[in-house]
């Protein structure tokens, strides 16, 4: 009895989860002609735009469907014929009036006679149990036209019972879920599961990335095992994570309704469907029902050379700080991506030396096989006459948005060859490290070239005999962030010479918290507390910073706090500022620090009243509910008042993702002899040196030297100018997202988001014995342009939405020290100039014949300049001792 009850419940459940009258798919009645109306329409607008403000179009037609053949051995094996008739194209926005691009145009003039004839040729659909077995059409029809027929035919694929399965239709091989209830079936297609060959790429870092979302729901109303009505709606939306105004949305709808049925042709006899198809028309061929790729014909388009002539004037060196330069850069990259090697090489060879660096930026950023071949043929790494161009090529490779194995393989091959410049050889290895990291982030760590590059870095570091080679491989490892390289970094951090030890510790500083294990921290503690050897202040303070930023234990924090007071004066002040900054900014270690400070032995006046000028400060540059931009500045001086290190960092955070936007470090050492001062412990034998190092968008660049050695110092002091030295200058493709979409209506859509940056980071260090004053200056000028572009193309009409944002900004940091007395006077200034922020929106509809409609909107506002606090203490000494800087908005002496 219980077993019968269970079987009864299963039967009832199965019945209620399927459409009455059938349990598989659609079934047509014999000898009947089904007459239906069909329409597909597409809307484009901003993510939250109104449909009446959208651009788009509607394709409508009558549709005749007949059953040609049914397998005599099974009712669910059917061959149906689908024919579109009376095709029309119209605007989806009825308020367009005289601006309606379709007004007064007949379907043959819009679609063209040949296309219209092909569109109205019937297709055959072989269905087994409601699923498409084969799609038959005529060969050599225009792909775009055939895709529209595929979109209509795919609506006839359904099942009349609930469940989840995989189906192949115009969207590809997709996971679909059916919900059946009485006379209604709802099909939900997981578009992100669809397997279909389409080009596309994206930026892996979430801060610079694009989030896209797609949905597809089709509702069937069924009577007598056939459709009375079908309503499908598909949406694709995208948004730039870091700027929500760069967003857009595609809404595609299909509607199929049964008007009437009437007497139709009789069934064709036969047991084999192939014979039946041949009898209908021998010209029919089986084609994939999956949508096929097509490119719209470009009439009157300019050649690459003509595009370059229109672009080059905007890329002159004096124009690079303007948004127009970046707009031109991004637009030209799009043209380069469709160009052949010979066209690109011709432009490179003909260009003047003033604009050539910018052209190299663009060609490298295009990231196509042809552009890579062209630039490699153009550059001669064995010559030292084109060092600037070689460096621009290498940095563009390092910033590549979607590097591939071939690019890494090329650089490995170049590194094994000969060079005309040692600096270029070093830069090649540094960029190899950056590419290894990017490829591993894309889960391509096991590629042959990546494995080879890892071995090259690690073995090179193990076997390096020259100091220069050791520094080169450490910089590469600092970019690659290989977990297997951590033991080597610890070795050089603890046992290496000053600069090598410092570089190794800064490389460790870039690893995520998961890699800073207890074993790593044991070594770092030994370095900070000098258990085995004396270390420079820069090495010790970096080791302490790593410990405090990576889940420090109670005893680690306590020992660091207890050391304050036993350190050299300026290091005491620096470590005290680090601890106070952790507490003020509520960093992860702040809770542990507060626990330790409850002990009087760690928290007392003697320890927390140390004087000095070194400092550390972290603050917000911008903050919103979903993102933040932070800056941090720490400055360490020697006991004699000469700058030892200044470190300016800018991070962008989005949820749990972050991007190290920039770091500029200025270092100096061995200058005490110039003012007859005593060097600090562990720094007695250091050579005179000053230089600058930078990280830009998570890529460590090759450091720049101001002077190296006493002779070089004196030479440059006698011939010194206040002109800054450029650390990095050029055009960077920062955001790069491309997505080709196959809409289930048969139309083709593209989503493109590009972000470009023109950047110039320069730095200078001035030193005056007469005035006993030193000054460091870092200036960062940028122009940023972000473009978002959505298009939907049917080959005879194209609609699009473009959303753009741009700004031009500058930020400057100046640190001035007077060391004629102790405690010496220090003034630090950091300002961001006021910047215009412009936004543009363009919507358009355009026929292939040339007629079009365009709507443009623009918004502009001025973002006020900002002054950023750089120290926890306030004082008026700057105003008393020095005249205020006229170009500065913020200055504080302490």
Automatic annotation (TrEMBL):
Residue ranges annotated for the Vitellogenin domain, each copy included: 28-663
Signal sequence, start to end: 1-17
PROSITE patterns: VITELLOGENIN
Alphabetically ordered keywords of this record: Disulfide bond, Endoplasmic reticulum, Lipid transport, Signal, Transport
Catalytic activity: a 1,2-diacyl-sn-glycero-3-phosphoethanolamine(in) = a 1,2-diacyl-sn-glycero-3-phosphoethanolamine(out); a cholesterol ester(in) = a cholesterol ester(out); a triacyl-sn-glycerol(in) = a triacyl-sn-glycerol(out); a 1,2-diacyl-sn-glycero-3-phosphocholine(in) = a 1,2-diacyl-sn-glycero-3-phosphocholine(out)
Predominant place of localization: endoplasmic reticulum
Subcellular location: Endoplasmic reticulum
Pfam family for this entry, one: MTP_lip_bd
Role according to the record: Catalyzes the transport of triglyceride, cholesteryl ester, and phospholipid between phospholipid surfaces. Required for the assembly and secretion of plasma lipoproteins that contain apolipoprotein B. May be involved in regulating cholesteryl ester biosynthesis in cells that produce lipoproteins.
Protein name: Microsomal triglyceride transfer protein large subunit
